[in-house]
Fold each of these.
Amino acid sequence: MSDDTLAALEREVVACRRCPRLVAWRELVAREKRAAFADEPYWGRPIPGFGDPDARLLILGLAPAAHGANRTGRVFTGDRSGDFLFAALHRAGLANQPTSVHAGDGLALHGTWITAAVRCAPPANKPTPAERDSCLPFTVRELALLKRVRVIVCLGAFAWAAGLRLLAERGFELPRPRPRFGHGDVWAPDPLAPVLLGCFHPSQQNTFTGRLTAAMLDALLRRAAELAGADWR
């Protein structure tokens, strides 16, 4: 590591070009744009994590949305999944406002850091396991720098798999068979390790069908608070 800080990690993430398929897609989307955002500049680069450096809670998503974070430059910002997530974080007292539309809109997180298993927008919102593993070293460093994290909320099965690999890279042994993903499921390999907490992803597919409701997400964030400890914020 040339510089062991979150700022240095952010610079490395933003400059990354490791995965040719993702580089080509994110840049194509940024050039062609969606008609609704035709007059806006697109970020079109990898997305760093953001939030409170003293976070007890780490939220691990899937990947940036093509016309969300790939446009705004901040994870979950400017898309429907983010609308659902930030509203819940605000209700829980973990965000100072319930919406996030662009990177300079004043959003601040309390006791929480948000990142993604894959840092570039993937075609059809489906990154490959190889792309996940290519991004893993960034997340390993990120977790090492976020020294107070006690709970990792994994948004979906893909993020859960990334969370398991993240803890394995930190030196914690994974059992066989590996713990399976489920909404509300909890797993920790060791009392000294962060706890993994599964959560259905706040995608429109899940929120529009009722698979994930606002009440379910509120309850899960309360559970995360309990697991993180009373003094987490």
Note: The radius of gyration is 17 Å.
Amino acid sequence: MKSLTHIKFLYVLFILFACSPVVKNPTPLHHQAVQASLNSEKEYRIQVGDQLDIKFFYNPELNEQVTVRPDGRISLQLVHEVMVAGLTPSELTQRLKQKYAPELKKPEIAVIVRSFGAYKIYVDGEVNKSGMFPIVGYMTVLQAISQAGGMKDTARTSEVVIIRRGEFNKPLAFQLNLRKVVDSTDMSQDIALQPFDIVYVPKSAIANVNTWVDQYIRKNIPIDFSTGFGYSF
């Protein structure tokens, strides 16, 4: 029996599929266009759990190291509560300069993301250990699947689906042919992942047939299909 969390994950996945334009078997040119669109926002956005260094050039006594709380805020001297989740470091720098302007003569501030508390990706489908995994540095689709214990024999490696936050947080879904990566004919299919990416490995057509046979024939018709015929299911 699947856990409630896993069921919720599949429900979200279904909603994303319904709302997302799916790019099937992208050509190299189309693949480059999709990748460019996915990477259009290059600067990292601060997330809950991130650890930030707030540096004041002319007022070092105000320097602080803070962690973004679950409500997306941090607490700082003089200005108290500041909402930071969803901002880039440069956007937060400008916001802090505005907030400290009434208090400091020359608020020169730097924001440094020391650690990333929310760098996660999700792997589900025909893998041996589906779930959420940390993403540290550069991680490709195959590396993420390896973290999930590898693909099952029933996996459809030619149609692995990636769902990612696109422009304006709209979900963008597209398919990758990892079979071409395995046989070294198209390594560009093994793209780098970004935080909150969902990697979904679908079940192969033959696996779906076997499931149907198991559910609707073997379990409902009291016949031993392993004997008495020239073939077996």
Note: The domain at 51-115 is CATH 3.30.1950.10 (wza like fold).
Amino acid sequence: MKTLVSFLVLATFVASAAMAGRASGPRLHLAGDSTMADKPTDPPNPEHGWGQLLPKFFKDPSMVINYAANGRSTRSFISEGRWQKILDALEPGDWVIIQFAHNDEKIFPNARGEFQDNLRRFVAEVRAKRANPILATPCARRSWDENGKLVDTHGDYPDAVRAVAAETKVPLLEMTRLTSVLEESHGPEGSKRLHLWIGAGIYARQPEGYSDNTHYSDYGAERVAGLAVQEIIRLQLPLADWLR
């Protein structure tokens, strides 16, 4: 009995020591593409990734660390060493949200080969660090047909992500479905507010103005970040304890 008590005291001490310097709890790392990425703000920039707005939903905003980058696929995220940076930073108990597809669609002939293998690799390597992977389906684009119906642009990629999540028993954020509903709730004209329909002369970055149906405005990014939070709560993930 004395030996057991001594072991429990030691285990408590080790756990406490491991959390020293981590008073704010676990960290949430984000791996993904431009729809998730932080955007430069100087000079003023109308574009925001949803991961850029996610910290405001947490008690300690600094716990969210965003590694997502414009134009990256699962392949380039690995080959450029961006994935390794996350692995090097991971500590036991951390979380990683992984969301790709927008750029993978451009380089892979279908979603059932390398793309899924890369997702499996991400899951396995996060778990090897005793951290917690979360997969997310890609955000919907603002794409409407002539009858005012939202058009799916991702093909079988969302299902490919769902399949890996089911196979590996990883929590899944259903961002494709939720962002599709978000687009539909705003309608063909109103959904422009979610994205980047910029008039001429408003931003020095884009003096001639432009339209973009994939990336988000500040308003759109905050709405999508809220959907990710909604999923964290729906799934009853321990990460929800750190939400505001």
Note: The chain is about 40% helix and 10% strand.
Amino acid sequence: MAEDLVLYDLDDAIATITINRKERYNALNLSVKQKLLELLKQADEDPSVRVVILTGSGEKAFISGADVTDFVGRNSETIREVVDPSREIAKYMVFMKKPVICAVNGYALGGGCELALASDIRYASANAKLGLPEINLGTIPGNGGTVRMSRLVGLGIAKELILTGDLITAEEALRIGLVNKVFNSVDELQAGVRELAKKLVQKPGVALTLAKQSIQNTWQLSLDEHLAFELDAFCQTFDTEDKEEGVAAFLEKRKSEFKHK
């Protein structure tokens, strides 16, 4: 059942979405993609959710990539029905209101790496291996891999990774800026991601959404347009209760109690 392929847990305003296909290293088939998008939308539209964690079941893989059996017999037209759902998921993750933390526990390859690239913050366990090995199948990344990887780590490193198809360790991913932090074990990774999520839960929700949108616009708008958007977003926060609370708490030297409105 699709419900078993992708798990959903909501606790303390944190929605954890887990790809649960361990026998195939959490590879993405159409059923997984459909359920994943459904749950991302559910989390984004639920006012009780403040932060989303995306991870994979077990310790061997976050998402090992697309289910390669879906590639057999496809041509330039029919492959689109396979990749379009993945592109929809990645685009939704980028533009959804809630921050998405990716917990990379094991392999994050191909489509899995591309979904990690679409998340807001990436933490990894020491056993993680990341890469875009599509070149070894006679193809290239098709869900933002050449675009987001280049923008995240720079053209030179991105070209080397994509043209060779080589995998890199978590420590190398940390060095080049592909992940934000590395933990010694999957258990420590889960604890670290949870700690980060709890920290973000305490931040003012409207400002968090506007900050995410403005940062994302670095890749969407010209400098002048981006600066104008940032100013408008900054001004919008002055119509929120959370701004009043944050300023008052600062002046009164106490902890803020944000209501996310």
Note: The mean pLDDT is 92.
